[in-house]
Structure formats: structure tokens, C-alpha cells
Design goal:
The complex is a heterodimer of chains A (336) and B (346). Chain A has 336 residues and is an all-alpha fold. Chain A has one domain. Chain A is built from 13 helices and 2 strands, in the order H-H-H-H-H-H-E-E-H-H-H-H-H-H-H. Chain A has helices at 2-28, 35-60, 68-85, 90-113, 119-133, 161-168, 181-199, 201-211, 213-218, 223-249, 260-270, 282-301, 306-335, and strands at residues 170-173, 175-180. Chain A has a two-stranded antiparallel ribbon. In chain A, 49% of the residues are buried. Chain B is of the alpha/beta class. Chain B folds into 2 domains: 26-137 and 276-302, Response regulator (Rossmann fold, 3-Layer(aba) Sandwich); 139-273, Response regulator (Rossmann fold), CATH 3.40.50.2300. Chain B is built from 13 helices and 12 strands. Chain B has a 6-stranded parallel beta sheet with strand order 2-1-3-4-5-11, with helices on both faces. A 6-stranded mixed beta sheet of chain B has the order 7-6-8-9-10-12, sandwiched between helices. In chain B, helix 6 links the parallel strand 6 and strand 7 (188-194). Chain B is globular. The model of chain B is unreliable at 6-24 (pLDDT under 50). The chains are: A mainly alpha (336), B alpha/beta (346). The A-B interface holds A 30-32, 34, 36-37, 40, 43-44, 47, 140-142, 144, 147, 168, 245, 248-251, 253, 255-259, 297, 300-301, 303, 305-306 and B 70-73, 75-80, 82-84, 86-87, 89-92, 102, 104-105, 108, 166-167, 196-198.
Chain lengths: 336, 346
Amino acid sequence: MNDKILNFSIRYGFLILLFGLIVYFSIAAPGFFGPLSAAFVLQSVAITGILALGVTCTLVVGGFDLSIGAVATSALMLSAYSMVILEHPAIVAVTLCLGMGALVGFINGLLIVKFRVPDLLATLGMMFLLIGLQRIPTQGNSIATGMTLTDGTVAEGTFSAAFLWLGRHRFDVVIDRLLPMPVVIFVAIAVLIWLFLGFTRHGRLMYAIGSNARAASLVGTPVNRYKVVAYMISGVTASIGGILLAARLGRGDIASGNNLLLDSVAAALIGFAVLGAARPNAFGTAMGALFVGILLQGMTMMNAPYYTQDFVKGAVLVGALVFTFYLSSRRTGTRH
Amino acid sequence: MLRRHFMALASVASLALGAGAATAQDAPAPLDNPGDVTIALVRYLSTGDFFQAYLSGVESQAAALGVNLRVLDSRQDAALQADMVDQAIALGVDGIIIQHGLTESMREAAQRAVDAGIKVVAFDVNVENDAIPQIEQSDYLLGKLALEQAIADNGDNFAAGYVYVPGIAPLDRRHVAWEEVKKANPGITEAARIGTLDNPIANANANQARAALQANPNISVFFAPYNEFAKGVKIAADELGIGGDLSIYSADISTADIALMREAGSGWKATVATNPAVVGEVSVRALALMLAGEKPGASVIVPPTLITQTFLNDNDIRNMEDLGSKMPQFQHADVAMADWMPLPAR
């Protein structure tokens, strides 16, 4: 009986908590419950959620990607540079960014599997490298339409309407102009990665690598190739996040995106606890991102200052990790 | 005895004032019932003395009016700041003050707020919207007055360091003054240009300034037109042991800055400032005027004041309160006023 309760709470505890949170804020914070508010929650988690899904793929193979935040801000700067200074159309800018994300992921993967650099250190190094690199073309300046370049000329390019549409368009759902485009992309990527990790042979092999790389390689899995692919997925999703950020801002702003890394890693780690998975999974990551988004939106509406929000975010993360690792170890313990 | 006379005089004066402004007590709707009015302050920049003082001004004027205040702080996250405007709309606030931010990210969010029937004012960010008055310190004048003092102190022939981060509206406007002064005075050269808004701002700029000063020992004047920048330059100069040889001219002021300017051997010679608390008060008053259906005008400009190290020392000014009492023009700006407008108690 006790085992049943324990199993139930491990499996559904997090989702019940999420539901309870929604009910609580709906009662306590006027204006929280409604389509408008829901759209804002989704919008605020869309970009970090996309990054978190990428990081989930690297967690699945037993790795970690610290460079996602920097990849996203690099994509932000690169898309702005490509459109405003090089005057490319939107499609070229987007392609460049996706290519950059894939390349960074590929290099990360090579550093890790070929040069045997530990994943945390390799991606940490890449993070610093990118933070510097993205500012070199403009000498550390933000990129805006009509900016003066170092040679004294004025940048003629603009953010094209098609590009801005990616970040700013809102679909008419229930109310006019409600559902932002980044949310649609977030949901699409979440479904894709969920299907890929959970329901394809490749996904299962990636989980196998994560739980025991040696065993996986002994049965003939190309472990290194899958690891590199995982980092490339992470790089590409991070660059998608950066593209959406650029499209929302309409400017290559060097100060934006500082919090992307921590928030998205938190979402992915909280995701471990969802449905008692005790392992990285796309559904959990999406729920984790949503959980943080709802918590922050609700607390903001109840006038809580930002530092208490950081505190609560940290407390939730620690709680989720304890939940995952302690309770799950007890559950597996009772099985034996 | 004297005291009692004074008290009598004061009460007569207040009676007279009260009689003259009999209608003044009755604020127009919806401010006649301020408990039902909520305004939101949506911030882009918040670390630093200037922004704390600004917030305190917003708080005290909101309290004087009796309205509820919500503070939403995006901490330099431009996308989050736009989200926060949406949050404020969802909260159903009556008025929004947008404090700093980027034109590109805030323009549409501000428009959405206006579309939702919310009154909006913007401080130091141009959201390109006719329905939104701009609250401004005259940043151009801030820069100009500081540079005029620099020329008065150092002549018109010196190598200067300059702190600038492009794309931040107030810094861009101060930058115009710097470009003008350089053009008008060929003897003034820009030997080094630094600048970052990474947090903590003073510290990040100190690192850059130290490198610039080491590389260019001929720099005798530093134009750092924002107090966190000036703080950074001062830290660097002190660390290099050249605090006395370098003259720093800046804009904005706070209690901490006063202490730094008055330190023995401090190179921080002058600053030009509008009292950030007053700017905060003016922001709320302008918003209150709009809520009451009056028009504060397309731009509400709060005039700046020159504050020199000498003035601070001569008058033994220790904090912003002292400064306010010795410099009345610093304590209150007579803009965005109405007969019915309650002012914060002093």
C-alpha cells in the first residue's frame, strides 16, 4: 500500500503540484486565469524552453551543454549582422544561424569525443569563446538599423518583416492576436524531440548511451557519432532560440539573453521529476519550463520582487532534484 | 517666542494656501478614489544608486496620490521587459510607466498597452508613440554642462578618456554633446573610448578604464557621462594611484557618489544631475495627469543642475537630503503639476 502511494506521488506529484499552483494563483492573483495570461506564460517560457529541449538531448547521452546560452546570443547577433550590415534577406540570416548552431554543436562534439575534453569544460570553453566572438564584428556594439559603422558609413539594412514575423506574429486563437509564433515553434520542437527520443530507434540508443556508454558500444552502437549528433541538435535548437529572440527584439542587443543558460538548464533538470521519469525527457522539460513560467508569472502578479523569484526558482529546482534522485532510488530499492 | 511666531505665521500661510486651493483637495476621477487605481512601473535598468533613487521618487509620489504601485523589474532583459508590459495589461492596471529599455523591443508592447486603454508614460526610452509622453532629463544639457565645466577647469587642450555604450537613448543624447565639444575644440582629443553595461556596471567599467589609463598615460580628463561609469573610472584611477591627476566629469548623482566626490584627493571634479527621485515623482505626476484626462505634453523635461566638488565641500554636503536643502532647484521640479496634485511630504 505504502509503495503504491509512493509510486503514485513520484509519478504524478509534480503534475499535481503544477495544477495546484495554477488553482492557487487563479484565486490569489486577479487576472492570472485567462487566455491572455496563459499566452504570456507560454511566451515567456518559449525561448528558454526551446533551449532546454536541446540541452535535454545532450543530457540523454550523459553529456551537458553549457554553451547553449552563448549559441543563442551568437545567433541573435549573427542574424542582426547578416540582415542589418550585410543586407541579407531573412531566409539567408536564418540559414546562417542554423548552420552556425550546427557547426558549434559539431565542434563541441569533436572536442568531447575526439579530444577527450570533459563535456562541462569543453562547452564552458565554447561559451566564453562565443561570448567574445559574437562581439568582435561590431566592436562590442549592439546592432540596430541605421547604426554608424566603424568606417563612418551608416548601416542600410533592416530587419525584414518576414524575420520579425517569426518572433512577433500572433495567431488568432480564442481572442484576436493571442498566440505568439515562438510558442508555436516551441510546441512543435517539443513534439519533435519527444517523438525522436521516445519513439525512434535513434532515441532509444541515445538513452542506452547515457545509461552505459560502454555497454552500448559493445553491442555495436556508434557511440561517438550519436554524441556528436546530440550536441548538434543542442546547437541548432539554441540557435533557433536566438533567432526568435532577435525577431522579438528587432535588434542585435548585446545585453539580452544573459539568463537563458541558467533558466533552460533549470527547466531540463526539473523535467527529470515529471512522471517520475528520473531521467531527461522532452515532455518533462517542457513541463519544467512551464512550471517555472507559471510560478514567475504568478509571483510577479502578486508583486513579489525579482530576488524572491530567483530564490523560489532555486528552491523548486533543489526540490525537484531531491524528488528525482532520493525518491526514485527508494523506489528502485523496493523493487529488489 | 520666536518659534511660536513662526508657527503662527506658518499656520496662517497654510490656511491661506488651503483657502486659495479649496478645490485642490478634490482630485478628478479616477484619482478621487485612488485606492482603486493601480499603476505599474516596468523597469529595464535597476542596479545602481540612480535607479534606486528613481524608484523611491516613484514610490513616494504614488504614496502621496494614494494609488497602488506594482514594480516589474526585467533586469536588462529586453524581451522580458516587453513580456512584463503584457503582464501589466493582463493585471488590468490603469497606468504604466516604462523606465528605460530598447525602442525596438518596447514599441509594440507599448502600443498594445495603449490599445488596451491603458495610460502610458515612458522615461528615457523612445517608444515612438504619439499617445505616450516622454519623461526626460535633458541628457544633452547634462553632457553639455559637464563638459563646459571640464573646459573651465582644464582649458581646451587635453587628452580625454570617454565612456560610452551606444544604443542607450540617454547615453546617445549625452554623446551628441561630446561630439560637439570635440568638434568645437580641436585641442581636445579622445585618446581612449571604453564602456560596458555588464553588471555590476561600475566594476566592469573599472577593469576597462584601468586598461585604458595604463595604455594612455597622457589622459588627464575622463568624461564618464553616467555615475556608474564615473565610479568605475574613479576605482581604476585610485587603483593605479593617479586619483589626484585625473579629472572625472560625469552625469547623475547619488549619496554614494557625493561621498566619492568628496573623498580626499578624489578626481571626480563635477557632475551634472537631475535628482532621480524628482524624475521619479515627475513620471508618476505625468501619468496621474493623463489618468485624470489632462495632457502633460509630448515631452516632459526635468531640468539639470551642475554640482561641483567645490560646492559639495564648501557646503559640507553629505547626502542627497543635504544637497536638496542647499540646492532647492534640486529638490523639486515644477513640471507636470496641477492644483489638485498632492506632493510627497518633505
